Amino acid sequence: MRNTIIVSHFRLAFTNISAVASSGLIYYYHRCCHRNWVVRKKLRLSSVRSWMSAAESSASVRVLPSKKEQDSTLILLHGFGSSASDLIPLAESVAPPSTKCILPEAPLRHDAPFPVRAWFSLDLTSHLWYRCSDKEGLESTLNRIFKLVADEIEKGISSNKIFIGGFSQGGAVTLNCMLRSPHQLGGFVAASSWLVGEEEYPAKLLSTHLETPLFMGHGENDSVVPFALGKHSAEIIRSFGFKNIMFRSYPKMDHFINEQERRDIENFLNSCYFDRMVSKSTLSH
């Protein structure tokens, strides 16, 4: 495995609508270890059509069976403009052997010049893009994730052996799941993310997970979701009474997951799986 596993980097480079109209939108989309695609305005029409066709025909969920008899489940949520397949290398490398991985795929939304997969819409023209104006989209996504959790419980998986994690926008959904899940789950992971819908709390807050472990990792050089926003989100959640939050920063890291953070996530999930106390000594150094 390379030193850095890039889970998703879907950077939107623009300043305002007029700039987009005149010069086009450039997407930098780094795929996990294998591909480095750059989609530009001058792409041939046939390439764009091929990309659109592939996006529209993608499965709604990817499932990775456990390597041993299943007794736990990890639900991983991809970032804005990404897809479930981008998280497969991460899922395979961090999940305990008896853990099945469920990788849902977000619906296509028109948040860009062409449809992109997103868990809820973002106003990308605003400097307050991180606020959620699409409450209906967020609610729909949360209900979908809670349904996946309920299905696993119905199949016989103990709720405290179900874990939810996400990258970027997927992490934003994960944090809301933690604050509002009616089931006592085993742990949560939010990488390069932030708390969306902050204004909804504490009104919609459930106290189910006040003791449940939460791992938040963030690159100090994140150029997509600012490091300060991620750290502030952790502080807000802690102020709600959540006692088991671990926020870890990674110097010189941009909007991706490097090998150190990957190991930290793996160690965190293993600690949650075996019901061990999660502490800084649990993580890599």
UniProtKB/TrEMBL annotation:
Listed GO CC annotations: cytoplasm
TM region positions: 12-30
Residue ranges of domain Phospholipase/carboxylesterase/thioesterase in the record: 62-272
Pfam families, A to Z: Abhydrolase_2
UniProt-recorded Gene Ontology molecular function terms: carboxylic ester hydrolase activity; palmitoyl-(protein) hydrolase activity
Protein family membership: Belongs to the AB hydrolase superfamily. AB hydrolase 2 family.
Lineage: Eukaryota, Rhodophyta, Bangiophyceae, Galdieriales, Galdieriaceae
Record's keyword terms, sorted: Hydrolase, Membrane, Transmembrane, Transmembrane helix
Residues making up the signal peptide according to the UniProt record: none
Protein's name according to its UniProt entry: Phospholipase/carboxylesterase/thioesterase domain-containing protein
Keyword Repeat among record annotations: no
